[in-house]
User: Fold these one by one.
Assistant:
Number 1:
Amino acid sequence: MPAAPRGSTSPAASVRRRSWILGLVVILLAGCGGGATPAPSFPPGAVVVHARNRTFDTTQLIVPAETEFSLAFVNEDGDSHNIAIRTKSGFDGDVVFRFDPVSARTIVLSVGKIPKGSYFFLCEVHPNMSGTVLAR
Ligand SMILES: [Cu+2]
């Protein structure tokens, strides 16, 4: 069975050229390798999302409304993933929050105030990686 192409010829390569669009991005090199669980070094109250095997570990994010919060994204894959929060599913609606795709790393981002309500999130590289967001 043919191996999937990897490396610089991937269309994802251009997407990941800038891993941190926000100056607020803090890179936390995942401390322990070899599949160990990440150290619980995230800010208090952080919303934590894992990506593994092209799947998010949750299909519903519950986030605080009307207040800034930290989003910790743990990408356990070599594939690039990101999270975009939008007002409608898929690529429809307005972008509420997003960051550029990253691969094989953990990042912690500061998310600005989101009005109370229901939203959608997806990985823009793999739109089937998706779910809902409840800001309450
Ligand atoms: Cu993805």
Note: The CA atoms of residues 81 and 104 lie 9 Å apart.
Number 2:
Amino acid sequence: MILISEASSYFPLRIARGLLVILVLLQSATCTKLEAAKRDSLQLVQVLFRHGDRAPTYTYPNDPYGDISTYWPEGLAQLTNRGKMQQYELGRYLRQRYDGYLGEKYTQKELYVTSSDMDRTIMSLESNLAGLFPPVNKWNPNIEWQPIPLRTIPWKEDKLLHVNVRCPRYHEIRRNFLSTSDVVKKINEDNQEFIQYCAEKSGLNARTVKDLYPLLDVLYAQSQHNLSLPEWAQGDTLPKLIQLHSTTNTWPTYTDEMKRLWGGPLLGLLIKNMMAIAGHLGSNPEDAHSVSHGVNRKMLMYSAHDSTLARIMNTMGVFEPHCPPYAAALIVELHRDPDTHEYYVEIHYRNDTTQAPYLLTPEKCGFPCSFRKMMEITKPLIPVDWAKECNLESRPTDFFNLRMGSSTTSTGVDGELIHSCYLSPSQLTLMGIGLFSMSALAVLVIGKVLQGRKEDGYYDDSGSRPFFVSLWQNKPFYGAAYEKL
Ligand SMILES: *[C@@H]1O[C@H](CO)[C@@H](O)[C@H](O)[C@H]1NC(C)=O
Ligand SMILES: *[C@@H]1O[C@H](CO)[C@@H](O)[C@H](O)[C@H]1NC(C)=O
């Protein structure tokens, strides 16, 4: 340094010195990011991840590996040993990243974890926690594991992790989007030949890009397990399917209204969790309680799906179209600047174990993204009264001119809305008779429906369809299919 400053009157050396200073500054900036200094400012970590490697959710008519019990002894859609290992590794990574911020010993004061209501996400979370919190004062000298409580959201009520709830308004705009949007039309037209090729070879009834999802699901899982794919599916087929699904991943939350109804509840939860820590929920004990359960915890974890990651990232404006891999983790950190005491948010995305997580920056917020700004830009995307915005009031029962006895909405754990309706006994009887005659009619038409028409639903890895597959194959229901019925 001395040498350089003495010679600083020489122009080239002045440039060199400038560069050196910049380099040193840059280097110290990247270093402190990972070191203790950063931890001093950390206030809350929220980790949302996809489950680990799993068996396929579907099979297809011409699948050479269609004999599930031979090739996938865990059962359809179940976590594999490899998946457990990926999650254990993610847990170890989180331990290393937050060691010191999190105590060495598990305590309920620091951690609160929630899973979607699926075997593979629950098992993933358990494997992850085994890596994050190995036992310290062992409860048994021979067992390298300790129990840690975890919660699930019943799948019928889940509008956060594996969204499965009715939202008529959302379904209506989604249908419109799929049938009228130029984006959708173009991609379907551009890929007609490929879709026909896949349909013919696989025996799947596929007419749109979206219909190819089950094929991607199966082929991807098989290739991950070194099962050699049939000749027609080798070469470009799988990469092309992945590329197409990367695009369709943005469709469920394509417009702002779709974001608000479909991604908004989860975004709202993440923001509210941070508001509780940053003191923005103030004196409303109900709010504060529903979020942090009365305790300001240091880490909240959510075990979920690729569709969850795509949905929340696209809603936050940080999604680059891709297929989130197994055990991919979105890490939302709330920091407080030790000098200015301002809160700011950092979003890290670990979708590659061979490198440091990507630092994602919502375009509207910039970096560093102050929490105030974050609240401002996300506000329009968070529903105030989700049930109402979904038009949940206009239920199918209105069709029969039945009047609801009363209807209440209350807030449950994690800010979940619980919507309940009461019908009188006579109304129920009338409805029962109606339903009985309708179901007789339904039996007549159901065969046709199963053969021909496809619904407009999105395929994702959450296992919404295996039940059709099981019928084709005349086999009992498995795995996720069972959970759905
Ligand atoms: C598949 O093969 C690769 C390379 O030979 C190997 O590293 C990997 O462990 C195999 N995967 C499985 C699930 O057997
Ligand atoms: C990982 O995430 C980055 C940032 O969003 C994205 O550009 C990349 O394609 C992703 N890669 C994989 C393997 O998911």
Note: The pocket of 2-acetamido-2-deoxy-beta-D-glucopyranose (ligand 2) is lined by residues 320, 322, 325, 349, 351-352, 358 (CB under 6 Å).
Number 3:
Amino acid sequence: MTFEKRSIGMIYVYCIITLGIYFIYWEIKTKNEMNKAFNANIPTGWLLIIPIANIYWLYKYTECFVTKVKGDDDTALWFILFWLVGIIMPWIVQTELNNLADNPQLLQNRQHGARYCPNCGKKIPFDAEICPYCAKKFETYL
Ligand SMILES: [Zn+2]
């Protein structure tokens, strides 16, 4: 399995017990999972302990999370949020990662950066309810 399912409550418990060290461990673990799943290039976690460089690291992490995991393009908004209120990060990020861990089909769609019609195999929009090529109707979509 590419993404490990984690209890969000336990992440916060571990963070409190370790006085925040677990938070860094969690950031690096999830960074490695995203790099692997999406062939992404979030840099080494060592940057987290270097001032300024850690801002760059957070940006790269957020960019991968937003564009690959969520499939959105509002990186700047999430980056500012994560920077100002870092405490929400495990909650927001792990929710999405757990979602991918539970839905292999969704993960596959995200990995391909697209969704494919099961009938004609053409690349179609994520939210299409009808295939624009073969007009097949979809009961549900992921
Ligand atoms: Zn089709």
Note: DSSP finds six helices and two strands in the chain.
